[in-house]
Write a structure and sequence with these properties.
The protein has about 260 residues and is an alpha/beta fold. The chain has helices at about 25-40, 60-75, 95-105, 120-140, 185-190, 215-230; strands at about 5-10, 15-20, 45-50, 80-85, 110-115, 145, 150, 160-165, 175-180, 235-240. The radius of gyration is 18 Å and the shape is globular. Bound molecules: zinc ion.
Amino acid sequence: MDTKIIFEDTAVKTVDVLVIDAHPDDAEISCGGAIAKLTSEGKTVAVVDCTRGEMGTRGTPHLRLQEARNASEILKLSHRINLGMADGFIDESPDSLYEIVTYIRKFRPKVILTHPPFERHPDHEAVNRLVRNAIFKSGLTKIHTELNGELQEVYRTRKIFCFMQSYQFERKPDFYIDISDHHDQKIRAIEAFSSQVYVVGNENTSEPTTKLSSPDFKEELIARARYFGGLIGVRYAEAYLSVEPLGICSFSNMM
Ligand SMILES: [Zn+2]
């Protein structure tokens, strides 16, 4: 029994896309549109949250787990895992690396999405380093990992993309994804974290105000998606970086 599972579709064993983030809500805020679009296309998506967000000013770890469960249903995720690492102190210790390798080998994703290398929250930068290191080690036959008492097979994907959260990327995004038809779903998934973000009706809470809980945060998020959408001639978009050089099969794919 894997106690780190907080949401799962037991019929799904491996997934098309694995999102690895630092805190519950990072995935929804940064790549919720792409996730909603993928699952609407019949693709399977799992999210691994490294921490429970226990250092957050508002809410409680228990509440954030419940919120993550609700958001997972809205985005139609197949799995949500919480590794229970120390919020604010994510490190690159062998234990942390083995944890990430274990879930990469469990889910065997074709694509991995994670934080970019330059971010406001130190945990986000730590997860970027941790995930890149783990992706490499996941492909090494001499790195042995077990899950539920079973030895795992090695696995490696070269398709690693970074989503944008607090800071702009240090260089131009490599591509944008049109999320126009899934933007409302993304906002609903973000609002599932009602202890963290502004939702109409929860203004009178006694909790302290944070950047995320002000109405400005959501306005800024929507404005950015609208701006990125405008760059590619659609209503809303999300920006991504590719860790490895990105190729296309033919110009035909663009026609
Ligand atoms: Zn975060």
